[in-house]
Write a structure and sequence with these properties.
Elements (H helix, E strand, L loop, with lengths): L1 H32 L9 H34 L4 H12 L1 H10 L15 H22 L6 H27 L2 H10 L4 H4 L7 H9 L4 H10 L6 H4 L9 H14 L12 H24 L7 H34 L8 E2 L4 H11 L1 H13 L3 E2 L1 H10 L28 H5 L3 H8 L3 H22 L15 H29 L1 H4 L6 H14 L11 H8 L17 H14 L3 H22 L2 H8 L5 H12 L4 H6 L3
Antiparallel strand pairs: 1-2
Helix pairs in contact: 1-2, 1-14, 2-3, 2-4, 2-5, 4-6, 4-14, 5-6, 6-13, 7-9, 9-12, 13-14, 15-16, 15-23, 20-21, 20-25, 21-26, 26-28
């Protein structure tokens, strides 16, 4: 009992010190972790950063409340007032430091996009916490205290109140709709009327994120006489692979950053003067005043902790811009992919096999793997996709489903007339007469079956050329075939990943349960006899492709359990009947059409939300198509067909 009482006394004595040091530690962790948010880091690290952002404000507020309670009790205890004054007066100096911590990191205003809409809540927090800190300071400070500490506290309060006031201001300006409206309104200012203007790439990015129609905006500028034609407002762009990550990084800074992001506020000379000159001077003056003050009446632990808090908070507030820039440069020198530069994957058949063999162990292992591992860099997939996207201006990306009929040439910009002639009944039905989410599922299973058959038949072999010798035409064609096959498999697994993890990004109204149904069908088909198998043999695949449709007799008929896989097997058989080159060229163009169509139909706010999680490859495609001038959902809704 005595030990418990001693532990409680120790905690009562050190509670506030631990809370303040913990708040300082979280701020430094966020400073060092800030550049990592703009890269594709493992999910567990990103979760830790998210928890630190959430906990930083809560810990600082709890520390202020603890400080308020301690000194409220001390002010009511008149008998021990002098003793409390000598032992805890330095704690009052920590109140403005906690306000500085509440101001947060200049690159970490929010953890999720919706926080920008809560700037009113942060304003209320500002008023309440400043009031608590000032009240605690007033009731705890005594006229007999050292005047140097009083001046130091006033200087720190100036920094804390100013830092905390900047946060709701930045959040209010960081809403996407506000920025998009300002971007377009800027085209109508007096300065811009003197010359004909076009929407800049920055304006286009903000407008796309807010689901605004670029075509509608361009027509408005033409009607106002600001441009001669839509082509003047939306000129053709030559987009490089390095430009897109830069624009995605700007979008991330604007949404999830703070006032130091140039896109968020207008950085005036007065603003720079305050942050680069006034703030360092105030911090140095407060630290110097504390150093020369009389510290004999105070506890040595409080004196040491105050030195640590003042020095590290000053370094945090003054050097954070330089530290962040240095860390960002170091991160770019590494091989860690930036935003949206990874392609996640999900293979339905492999998942079914592992679940059937391992059960809950596989589910737990897959979750741990998703937490600690990163998706693969998009590599050849991104380069090949960009190379094939020659012209998307004014394109209706849904045309990949349109085929020639009665000899008329269709507007299908993905499938050439030659490839359309190779499309049989199953290919056409799977694209034209099936919902988009189910079409993705069928093509994913069919693509995986074709891949497994190709590996078993050894379709893809080296050309046998000597090392260093120039490749002949056949070798180049084989290399392109292997590259196209690699991209087909990558896009197929990625689209299945979207259907499994983010169906709302794949297409509005996509049904997540299609994946789980298909997994159960595969497990049922291959494990009827309860035999474990880690891989599928060629005999298994041939048996799967030989699946025949039988009419449903009743609800308990086993054929009900192979609804999706039966259609996929028919599609795979039709694809396998094609020549190798034609088959993979057709599948590549179909998956390209699905990828582009899904990107064009996904809402901008979903892409903005995904940036907080490292971004999706679909956002990379979406931004590329938008800047190229393709027709998006907003264009179809706003403008006449």
């Amino acid at each position: 009992m005595h030990e418990i009482w001693r532990a409680l006394q120790w905690w009562d004595d050190w509670q506030l010190r631990i809370l303040v040091l913990g708040s300082l530690g979280l701020q430094w962790f966020l400073l060092l972790a800030a550049p990592m948010r703009k890269f594709s880091i493992p999910r567990i690290f990103r979760t830790c950063i998210w928890l630190a952002i959430i906990s930083s404000d809560a810990l600082a507020i709890y520390a202020l409340a603890t400080l308020f309670n301690r000194h409220s009790r001390a002010s009511g205890n008149c008998g021990n007032q002098q003793q409390q004054h000598s032992s805890s007066i330095l704690e009052v100096l920590w109140a403005p430091v906690l306000l500085i911590h509440l101001g947060g990191q200049k690159e970490m205003a929010v953890s999720v996009m919706e926080d920008n809409e809560l700037w009113i809540r942060h304003t209320v927090t500002l008023v309440s916490q400043v009031s608590v800190a000032l009240y605690t300071f007033c009731i705890s400070w005594h006229s007999s205290s050292d005047w140097k500490l009083l001046v130091a506290a006033v200087l720190l309060f100036v920094i804390g109140v100013a830092s905390l006031s900047e946060k709701p201001f930045a959040l209010n300006r960081a809403t996407i709709n506000r920025k998009a409206a300002l971007s377009f309104q800027r085209q109508g200012t007096k300065e811009s009327r003197k010359k004909r203007v076009a929407l800049s790439e920055t304006d286009k990015v903000w407008m796309l994120l807010s689901d605004m129609s670029l075509l509608a905006a361009a027509n408005d500028l033409v009607a106002r006489g600001r441009a001669l034609s839509v082509e003047d407002v939306l000129p053709p762009l030559i987009i490089t692979e390095k430009a897109l990550p830069r624009w995605l990084g700007y979008a991330f800074d604007f949404i999830y950053g703070n006032i130091y992001a140039p896109a968020t506020v207008v950085v005036t000379p007065l603003y720079l003067l305050y942050h680069l000159l006034v703030v360092p001077i105030l911090h140095m003056a407060a630290l110097l005043l504390f150093a020369v003050s009389d510290k004999n009446p105070y506890k040595r632990a409080d004196v040491k902790i105050t030195y640590i808090i003042l020095c590290l908070t000053a370094a945090l507030d003054v050097l954070q811009v330089f530290v962040r820039q240095l860390l960002s440069r170091l991160m770019y020198m590494t091989t860690v992919p930036a935003l949206c530069q990874t392609v996640a994957s999900y293979n339905l058949i492999d998942t079914a096999l592992w679940e059937a063999n391992n059960g809950w162990i596989f589910k737990f292992a897959s979750r741990m793997r998703s937490c600690f591992c990163m998706p693969q860099h998009y590599g050849n997939v991104g380069a090949l996709v960009m190379a094939d996207l020659v012209d998307a201006r004014g394109r209706d990306l849904a045309s990949y489903r349109v085929f020639d009929a009665a000899g008329f040439i269709s507007n299908n910009w993905i499938l050439s007339k030659e490839l359309q002639e190779h499309c049989g009944v199953q290919v056409r039905n799977s694209l034209c007469n099936v919902a988009f989410d189910r079409s993705v599922l069928l093509w994913h299973i069919a693509t995986d079956l074709c891949r497994r058959c190709s590996i078993g038949n050894a379709d893809f072999v080296d050309d046998g050329g000597e090392q260093g010798a120039p490749a002949d035409e056949e070798g180049v064609e084989d290399s392109m075939l292997r590259l196209r096959r690699e991209c087909v498999v990558a896009i197929s697994d990625y689209m299945a990943h979207l259907l499994h993890v983010s169906p709302e990004m794949l297409m509005t109204g996509s049904r997540h349960h299609l994946i789980s149904e298909a997994v159960e069908e595969v497990k049922y088909f291959f494990f009827k006899k309860k035999k474990k198998k880690n891989t599928l043999s060629q005999q298994d695949i041939e048996h799967f492709l030989a699946m025949e449709h039988k009419p449903v007799v009743n609800e308990e008929d086993d054929d009900n359990r192979v609804f999706h896989t039966e259609e996929a097997s028919k599609l795979a058989k039709e694809l396998m009947a094609m020549p190798d080159g034609t088959r993979w060229r057709l599948m590549y163009r179909v998956w390209l059409g699905m990828l582009f169509y899904s990107a064009s139909m996904c809402r901008g706010n979903l892409h903005a939300k995904s940036l907080a999680e490292g971004g999706e490859f679909l956002s990379f495609i979406w931004l590329m198509l938008g800047l190229k001038g393709a027709k998006f959902l907003a264009d179809k809704l706003q403008m006449a067909p």
